[in-house]
Design a protein that fits this description.
Blueprint (H helix, E strand, L loop, with lengths): L3 E4 L5 H11 L4 E6 L3 H15 L7 E5 L5 H15 L4 E4 L14 H29 L2 E6 L3 H4 L5 H21 L4 E8 L12 H10 L8 H12 L10 E4 L7
Length: 250
């Protein structure tokens, strides 16, 4: 797969594994990060060493707060200058917060939507300029099972992730005639830093509620994203692929 791929929120967790999957398949990968510069640069160096390429040849760690339109525009200009147009966009950047709905502040609510939804909006619009011109491209949004079924004490997170699902379905219809596929991956309980905050008791309960009886891995999500970016999925668009061990059906 000789493509240019942008993964937002690529410095750690699911994002880093997605970036790794594409890089090892020979793609040019832009690793977007906001606050985790050190992790992004370390990932880039590790991938370059593994691939045997020089710094910046195929891997580009790049800073941008995806909720800021100006920073996103600048990021795409940098990618264009280095690798050309983005062929595959993975909107993975996200934040998490557990809080009672009655305790949420306006800033909590706005920041959650700014990163998840505004970020996908900004990046998708920028990516689509080239995709529509070339009549091809893939956009994969990373949502969550909580966007499908809702999560207690994560109302703003669940609502933002649900919005990503709505964006996916509507945008797929709009850009389908231009030969572009837009899909969504909805992870279940995944072994990430975000979930490290959960107590052992909570994790055990979530495992018991998952038919397969285990939590997922970042690689599980990366494989799903890679499939949706591959030519094998060219007739799939507007879909939500649940990678959740059977916890959410349908």
């Amino acid at each position: 797969m000789e493509k240019t791929v942008l993964v937002t929120g690529a410095s750690r967790g699911i994002g880093s594994e997605i970036a790794r999957r594409f890089a090892l398949e020979g793609c040019r990968v832009a690793l977007n990060y906001h606050t985790s510069k050190k992790q992004a640069e370390e990932l880039a160096a590790a991938l370059e060493e593994c691939l045997g390429v020089s710094a910046g040849e195929r891997i580009l760690p790049i800073h941008a707060d995806v909720s800021d339109r100006k920073q996103v525009e600048q990021m795409f200009a940098q990618i264009q200058g280095r690798f050309g147009d983005v062929d595959v966009l993975v909107n993975n950047a996200g934040i998490a917060q557990q809080k009672l709905f009655t305790d949420l502040t306006e800033d909590d609510w706005r920041r959650m939507f700014a990163v998840h939804v505004d970020g996908a909006f900004h990046c998708s619009q920028c990516a689509l300029r080239g995709m529509i011109h070339r009549h091809r491209g893939k956009i994969i949004n990373v949502s969550s099972m909580w966007g499908q079924i809702g999560g207690s004490c994560e109302v703003h997170y669940s609502a933002a992730k649900a919005a990503l699902i709505g964006l996916t379905r509507a945008l797929a219809k709009e850009v389908g005639p231009s030969g572009i596929q837009v899909n969504c991956v909805a992870p279940g309980v995944i072994d990430t830093e975000m979930n490290c905050a959960l107590s052992p008791e909570t994790l055990e309960q979530l495992c018991e509620e998952t038919p397969l009886g285990v939590v997922g891995t970042c690689r599980d999500i990366a494989e799903a994203v890679f499939f949706l970016a591959d030519s094998r999925s060219d007739f799939i668009t507007g879909q939500v692929l649940g990678v959740n061990g059977g916890m959410v059906i349908g």
